[in-house]
Amino acid sequence: xxxxxGLSQEALAFQAGVTKNQVQLIESGRSSGRxxxxxxxxxxxxxxxxxxxxxxxxxxxxxxxxxx
Length: 68
Description:
By secondary structure, the protein is mostly helical. Helices cover 51% and strands 0% of the residues.
């Protein structure tokens, strides 16, 4: 969805108020940058809302897109 809106990871991070690293981890479905970390990505609601606002969509649209 980020790419469909023509945003780089850095631009989305800036607009959502998070770090580029957080965007990378969430997009890859990882919970941390550690290679041995096996937990799924689980962003805060505030991060989800920040992404939605930056993308001009509802937070529920992001959940739908992820199949949640």
